[in-house]
Write a structure and sequence with these properties.
12 strands, 6 helices, eight-stranded mixed β-sheet, alpha+beta
Length: about 230
């Protein structure tokens, strides 16, 4: 005879489903709020202190909850530990045929020759941890620049971080491709700091010179405000 403790009661099942639904609804609402903010910001190149920003700038920066993922060397990476630095965050994957590598090339070009380069992090977060092993991801990001940071982890943790940025990723079967499947994903670069959150975003195909000018202005902000 089966013990009742081995079989979930209807009330427990209903409660479990309600909890899962509430979590999904909460995450969906955050994505919708951030996506709406991004939509409103698109095309709005505001000026501050005489500087015309190349990226899409929000009236008020969007806060980013602290998160922890795993670096390619196995060490933990915490967003909060980048206090005082500028982060250029991109969600992509190493099997990406075009958008990801082109964006990495543009980021490298934007940073070349930038005064204060050491205060800027390029963070590539894999949306395909199944194939992007630490070794694969390490070779990929270091192929563009030795100080680019690659992050991976369980997909559930990565998905939570994506939701914080209003980003998404979804597998798409590609039987004719050697890769087996592709990943549709947000192709936007997020400029974020611990103190300010998401300050600017840059769509695919942004001008590297424009990003470099924005970074130079932000890096000089304390002097500009004197």
């Amino acid at each position: 005879m089966w013990g009742s403790e081995l079989l979930p009661t209807p009330s427990r099942e209903v409660g479990k489903r309600n909890t899962q639904l509430q979590l999904k609804t909460s995450n969906l609402l955050r994505i919708l709020i951030l996506a709406t903010a991004l939509l409103l910001a698109t095309g709005c190149q505001a000026s501050t202190g005489g500087h015309q920003f190349s990226g899409n700038r929000f009236d008020s920066p969007l806060a980013v909850p602290d998160f922890e993922l795993t670096q390619t060397n196995g060490a933990p990476f915490r967003f909060s530990e980048t206090e005082g630095q500028i982060n250029l965050i991109y969600f992509g994957y190493t099997f990406c045929p075009d958008v990801c590598p082109l964006t990495m090339i543009d980021l490298k070009e934007a940073l070349d020759g930038l005064e204060g380069r050491e205060w800027v992090n390029v963070i590539f977060i894999s949306v395909d941890p199944e194939r992007d092993t630490p070794e694969v991801l390490e070779r990929y990001v270091k192929g563009f620049a030795p100080d680019f940071i690659g992050l991976t982890d369980d997909y559930a943790k990565i998905e939570t971080v994506m939701q914080s940025f209003g980003a998404y990723a979804e597998k798409e079967e590609a039987p004719e491709s050697a890769a087996g499947y592709l990943v549709n994903h947000t192709a936007r670069v997020y400029l974020a700091t611990v103190a300010e959150g998401i300050m600017l975003t840059y769509p695919f195909g942004f001008e590297p010179q424009g990003l470099r000018a924005d970074l130079a202005y932000i890096l000089q902000a304390p002097k500009n405000n004197e």
